Amino acid sequence: MGKPGRLTPLSRLLGSTPIRLAVGLIAVFATVNILSLGFAWLQLRSNVEKQIATNLDQQIAGFRMADDPGTLAARVDTEAMAVDPETRILVFVAPGGESFGNARVQMRGREIDLEEREGGRDLGDDGYRLRSVAMAQGLLVVGESLAPIRDMEETFLGLLVLSIIPTLLISLGAGVWMALASARRVGHVEATLEQLARGNLFARVADDGRDDDLSRIGAGIDRMAEAQGAAMSALRQVSTDIAHDLKTPIQRMSVLLSDLRARLAEGSAEAGIADQAVAEADHAASVFQSLLMIAQIEGGSAKSRFVCVDLAQVAATFAEIYTPAAEDSGYHLTLEPLPGGPVPVRGDKVLLGQLIANLIENALRHTPTGSRIVLGIARDSQDVVLTVSDDGPGIPAPERANVLRRLYRLEHSRTTPGNGLGLSLVQAVADLHDARLILRDNHPGLRVEVRFPVPGAKGVGIAGSFQKDDPPPTDRRQ
């Protein structure tokens, strides 16, 4: 399965658990407050509407004693003079159609339209709750202004705008701020885990002085990393000690076998056996020498010698060194056109040369005669990319992680010279330079990419570059 694509900062932010928790709590808070405010609004509105209905009933009840149209018209006119039509409507429509009161009534079916009386006071703009009753052979219309409901609406709207919304915004801001602080800590833990997964067992979360769950998780990760680092250091030390202790005896054995071979007659069976023994002893010595070199690289002492190196010039130098030998063996080694100007990386020029040499030799060793091998240097905004590609049999995708292990060899490579440490040494040099080693399919063949970080320091020139008369690094064919 392929690795998922990189998340954008916004996606990472929205996918953060602390951010989601903060937004969720704010949503719950907002929902509870809005529901409480809505319930209070419904209750108060219901009470006001009931009060308006009670007032209308009382008004109608006060006029029921008048059965004569003239009497009722006089009472309505009298009371209407003392009532502001903006708050209350009193109208009696006599049997002849004449209106009495503080407004005029127009009937449209069952609907009642109110109009101002000529010379009378203005009606209210908030609307009315009207009730009509047949009385004294005419129609009595009473109404109560809806201004109390409108005022209450404005009050609740002001409460929403000036109280709840600012509270929500302040709470949201505070919640997101605290969540971002927590998210930064989670991001630091994730970055540490990523470094550990890439093999940097020195990465630590570090104690921030707090006593919470994230601090405890970080402390647990640091303890785990420390234990793994100690185990790996012990394992590497054992490997280094074994290689160091056996290297000298095996070299002596090789010298003794060579001396023995020199004393044997050419063409004898004993001479053939001695030749095989010398070859095996030399192979074992090269294995131990490579293991010791990998251990020294992983120790990191070479970082003290890092300078700014022109990787393009290093690649050109090694292409010039290996091209004649490759052509003599029937291979085609070419160097892609280099970028204009120096291509700086920060590192050890001898180890960088060893890396390029190992990659070229690996391609020469594991591809058939006549294969094409291409060495290239490129750069972009983030990386300086060294590539060595061929059109040979390649490496199956499931095996690409295995070939970076020490002493691991593919089945079809067991009949070729080597000890399975060439790519392991390349990986060690790449790790030392904070570079990424990537194996890809070249369709056909293998494409090896080593991605170096671009030096970020301002004003750093190219120092320690290879010159054509520089001696190449030791030729360690794996």
Total count of domains? 3
Order of helices and strands: HHHEEEEEEHHHEHEEHEEHEE
Number of strands: 13
- The end-to-end distance, rounded to whole angstroms, is 32 Å
Strand content: 15-25%
Structure notes:
This protein has 478 residues and is of the alpha+beta class. The longest helix is centred in the middle third of the chain and has 51 residues, at 147-197. Helix content is 51%, strand content 16%. Helix 5 (213-263) runs antiparallel to helix 6 (269-299), helix 7 (311-328) packs parallel to helix 8 (349-366) and helix 8 packs antiparallel against helix 9 (422-432). It folds into 3 domains: 1-189, no CATH class; 213-296, Signal transduction histidine kinase, dimerisation/phosphotransfer (DHp) domain (Helix Hairpins), CATH 1.10.287.130; 303-453, Heat Shock Protein 90.
Characteristics of this structure?
kinase, 9 helices, EC 2.7.13.3, 51% helix, five-stranded mixed beta sheet, Helix Hairpins, single chain, HisK_dim/P_dom, alpha+beta, two-component regulatory system, transferase
